[in-house]
Specification:
The chain has a six-stranded antiparallel β-sheet with strand order 1-2-3-4-6-5. Helices cover about 35% and strands about 30% of the residues. The longest helix has 26 residues. Strand 5 and strand 6 form a beta hairpin. It has one domain: Yope Regulator, Chain: A (2-Layer Sandwich), CATH 3.30.1460.10. With about 160 residues, the protein is of the alpha+beta class.
Amino acid sequence: MDRFPIADADAVTRLNDLLATWASAWMSDGHVVAIDHHDGADDRGHFHWLVRLRGDEKDFVTVWIALRQRSVHIETEVVPAPEMGEEAIYRFALVRNADLRSVHLAIGPESAIYLVSAMPLAELTLERLDEVMAAIVIYVDELYPTMMTLGFSWYRRRRR
């Protein structure tokens, strides 16, 4: 059970420090726009951070990080619930899931499509955090245009 220790008060400080260290490197490159931490725990005892990253296809990628009892949960919404073509977009997501590393696609309770990662707190290092956050930005930029085209008739991909 050493791999999954219960998060203590010190875990919040350690995760906050790790995120600050990671963000400082990404801020200098202009990739991190903002990082916010909510001081108190929610009704389930989870602590939350919000990281706003700059994307290419999607202007901003908002990542939610939650320190849960024994793990760190990281997620971002790729696209909202599709207005049309649900079967096509969900099939696309399932096929693409096989090629993803560090994260996986999931359908949220409101039918939006998310990229998700979770790991034991003890395994979250600066390198691992960097790997997951880079994967999120890369995959959102890869997936967003196709998923928006499949799920929304009004969407037209902009060319930069």
